[in-house]
């Protein structure tokens, strides 16, 4: 049946195939930071830095979802939720960015089974900001090879869950990973390097593209692949507002939609950032 939501001034009707759900990310809820062979991520390291996080909070325990997942799924079922978007921890699945950790994979297998038994559709986000610290030590997202490692990780997860998971997201909000992680420094790994932030933008885009290509090449049936971009809606007034909005739109929005939808970066973005980087990290193809 059609779902409706009422407001004093209007009624919104949702289509029959609209899904109600919730979403989380691994580091925010799992805990079990050193359980089952999990290795440290950039967020584990970042949270240890004095003053980096309010009250020195960290994800060592968090919501303890690693141990309480069955109870959490029951809560979702009781709420009548139809889908659950979650992210496996790259640091739990491939702790050093390379070899597969079978114990970590088994945790997500149990979670997916629990969701399906509860009639809840699993919606899997491959990356939600928790880069293995081992890969950050090699340069992190400003390092082109991280895109290759991500594609390998994506295939490894896909190979083990594609029989039960049909909805996949590659990256959650790469704007945050790149600009907050490597430019502004408010997110892990907490670096303040504008040129590195733009290199991270490119390699996150590259990681998305390579992962989707690899997954499509090995997929059967009709899996759905997507990416989560946090778009900026810009408003302004007065002298200079139009130019400011153009610049922010290029940096925040079109830096991702340009390569993903058109296969190229906007020329105005390259011009705006010429004093920061020459974009020489972009290669043919």
For this entry, give a set of tags.
alpha/beta, globular, 12% strand, five-stranded parallel beta sheet, 11 helices, 285 residues
Q: What would you call the structural class?
A: alpha/beta
Chain-averaged pLDDT = 96
Strand content: 5-15%
Give the number of helices: 11
Distance between the termini: 47 Å
Count every beta strand, where a strand is a DSSP E run of 2 or more residues: 7
Rg measurement, Å: 20 Å
Strand order of the largest sheet: 3-4-5-6-7
General form: globular
The low-confidence parts are none
Q: What order do the helices and strands follow? A: EEEHHHEHHEHHEHHEHH
Percent helix, as a range, is: 40-55%
Largest sheet: 5 strands, parallel
Task: Describe the protein.
The protein is α/β, with parallel strands linked by helices. The strands form 2 sheets. It has a 5-stranded parallel beta sheet. It has a two-stranded antiparallel ribbon with strand order 1-2. It is built from 11 helices and 7 strands.
